[in-house]
């Protein structure tokens, strides 16, 4: 399988979206504060509000992308656990079974692994 370019990595893209949202927020707040303290005219207030709206938009985009990325990872989970996991469950070692399931499925969260093991 070909390696994906690092700039196409979804987690880096999501972090960049959060960073852009934060930068817009800082700029928007600074413009609004300049207007409030009388160091700028009303166009500074308008600019601040526009950038605040952009910030909220980028934040919504980043949150949606993160949610889609988590769902994509969740659906990549192996639907059939390995025999050793089933053996651990038969022995009553639920925690060990969850740990082993996570080892066999890198990137899966604890809650997702627990849900799969509970469903056995």
What does this structure look like?
With 120 residues, this protein is mainly alpha-helical. The chain has two domains: 9-75; 78-120, no CATH class. 74% of the residues lie in helices and 0% in strands. It has helices spanning 10-36, 42-75, 83-90, 94-104, 110-118. The chain is rod-shaped, with a radius of gyration of 23 Å.
What descriptors fit this protein?
74% helix; rod-shaped; 120 residues; mainly alpha
> What proportion of the residues form beta strands (DSSP E)?
under 5%
Residue-averaged pLDDT:
83
Number of domains: 2
Q: How would you sum up the global shape?
A: rod-shaped
Distance between the termini: 32 Å
Topology, element by element:
Layout: H1 10-36, H2 42-75, H3 83-90, H4 94-104, H5 110-118
Short description, anyone?
By secondary structure, the chain is an all-alpha fold. The chain folds into two domains: 9-75; 78-120, no CATH class.
């Amino acid at each position: 399988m070909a390696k994906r370019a690092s700039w196409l990595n979804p987690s880096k893209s999501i972090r960049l979206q959060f960073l852009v949202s934060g930068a817009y927020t800082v700029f928007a707040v600074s413009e609004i504060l300049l207007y409030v303290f009388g160091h700028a005219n009303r166009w500074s207030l308008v600019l601040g509000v526009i950038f605040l709206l952009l910030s909220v938009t980028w934040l919504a985009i980043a949150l949606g992308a993160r949610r889609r990325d988590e769902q994509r990872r969740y659906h990549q989970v192996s639907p059939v656990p390995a025999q050793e996991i089933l053996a651990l469950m038969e022995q009553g070692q639920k925690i060990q079974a969850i740990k082993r399931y996570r080892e066999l499925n890198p990137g899966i969260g604890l809650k997702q692994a627990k849900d799969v093991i509970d469903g056995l």
